[in-house]
Task: inverse folding
């Protein structure tokens, strides 16, 4: 491991969390970075660690594909917002390749998000999606946070397991999913019908079984599987597709 405390070419560290000019994603925090390092589809361009972080890499048996740069914690701080908790590790990586909507197999669960703009909330949803083995998250190119920084940290490694599919028009994308055999289910906290009580005849168009408020568009699940039963009106659950769910760290 080499020690390097200045930016490349002697340039000062950038203070923004936004993607750099070369479209790199910033990933920080141990769970997020470890998952990125273990993902063969993720290309890491640069890895910054503190001396304690370097020791932890060795203790965990993590062998990055590139040589980490050992820096002071303050040098990582300068790259990130004031409230960012990086835990002594920061990776600059290429964005993950995103599948096309038509490439999603209709035998799994797809989570569709509309105007979830807060990266903390979006990341938490991605983390839960990974735990339930969701096949993909579909959202709009606009009105959604970038898959970097706070979102990646909040997802706690979930971004490495659940691909993000960006579309221009969400209604059109949902129509395409339905045409390909997905069952569309709209979830609304103010809906009048409990998820478990939706009549089988309504399930192919279960959107009509929920109140038509704006909240109904903010969280939808598309699946061709039968609507599962839930334990109560307060807790609505959806079974994952066949195959193991991803065990994300707490």
Result:
């Amino acid at each position: 491991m080499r020690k390097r405390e200045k930016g490349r070419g002697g340039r000062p560290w950038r203070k923004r969390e936004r993607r750099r000019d070369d479209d790199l994603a910033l990933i920080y925090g141990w769970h997020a970075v470890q998952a990125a390092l273990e993902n063969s589809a993720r290309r890491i361009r640069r890895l910054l660690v503190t001396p304690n972080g370097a020791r932890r890499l060795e203790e965990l048996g993590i062998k990055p594909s590139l040589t980490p740069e050992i820096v002071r914690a303050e040098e990582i701080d300068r790259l990130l917002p004031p409230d960012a908790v990086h835990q002594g590790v920061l990776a600059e990586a290429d964005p993950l390749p995103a599948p096309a909507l038509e490439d999603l197999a209709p035998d799994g669960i797809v989570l569709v998000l509309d105007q979830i703009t807060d990266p903390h909330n979006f990341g938490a949803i991605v983390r839960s999606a990974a735990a339930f083995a969701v096949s993909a998250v579909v959202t709009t190119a606009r009105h959604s946070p970038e898959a970097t920084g706070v979102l990646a940290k909040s997802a706690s490694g979930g971004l490495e397991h659940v691909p993000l599919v960006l579309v221009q028009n969400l209604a059109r994308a949902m129509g395409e999913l339905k045409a390909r055999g997905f069952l569309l289910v709209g979830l609304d906290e103010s809906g009048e019908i409990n998820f478990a009580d939706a009549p089988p005849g309504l399930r192919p168009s279960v959107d009509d079984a929920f109140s038509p408020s704006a909240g109904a568009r903010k969280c939808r699940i598309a699946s061709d599987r039968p609507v599962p039963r839930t334990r109560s009106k307060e807790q609505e659950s959806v079974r994952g597709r066949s195959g193991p769910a991803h065990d994300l760290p707490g």
